[in-house]
Amino acid sequence: MEATRAESPPLAPPRLNPFALPSDTTSRFFLLIVAVLAASVFAYNLLSYELPSTEARFATSQRCTAAAEARPLPQTMAPIEKDRLLAQAREDCQRPYRRWVAAVIFAGTLGVLLVALLLYALTPTWKMRRRRLVPLGEDDAPELVRSFRDLCHEAGLERPPVLLWNPLERVAAP
């Protein structure tokens, strides 16, 4: 009699790790932040061109061009070199205005970031006050608090989250 070997079932392919890449929510939130900042830069750039009047910008440009063309240049200089020096002189004259435009864009975008961070930091406090939430104590629901601590310990959390509740509300709030 020949011994028959039982065939082993084929090995299943390894499961993908769902935590290997950031979640879709994280990626979308990051894209939202980038889009808001890009829109802010665009809006403040437009605003910086509208703040000084068009006539004032045109007068500054004309003044810079006139000052650049009034500079004495050697007659033996090549035309390309003259054009380069004139363009450089115009740039030098308009540099303070361009710095002002950059400062408006930077300050506006920084303001948007600061307001967003302030709202992000104050939202939990605002929700707690609005819903009249207080921390759930050991004496309020001892079994629930103990079970919650056990779950936090099992999950390996260094500091467990605070359980909040409104003792006067009889229905669960979302």
User: What structural class do you assign from the helix and strand content?
Assistant: mainly alpha
Gyration radius from CA atoms, angstroms: 33 Å
The level of helicity is 55-70%
**CA-to-CA gap between the ends?**
70 Å
Query: Low-confidence parts, pLDDT < 50 over ≥5 residues?
Result: none
Care to describe what's here?
The chain is mostly helical and 174 residues long. It has helices spanning 24-50, 54-70, 79-131, 142-155, and strands at residues 134-135, 164-165. It contains 4 helices and 2 strands; from the N terminus they run αααβαβ. Helices cover 64% and strands 2% of the residues.
Question: Keywords for this structure?
Answer:
single chain; 174 residues; mainly alpha; two-stranded antiparallel sheet; 4 helices; 2 strands; elongated
Give a short overview.
By secondary structure, the chain is an all-alpha fold. The protein has helices at 24-50, 54-70, 79-131, 142-155, and strands spanning 134-135, 164-165.
Secondary structure elements and pairings:
Layout: H1 24-50, H2 54-70, H3 79-131, E1 134-135, H4 142-155, E2 164-165
Antiparallel strand pairs: 1-2
Helix pairs in contact: 1-3, 2-3
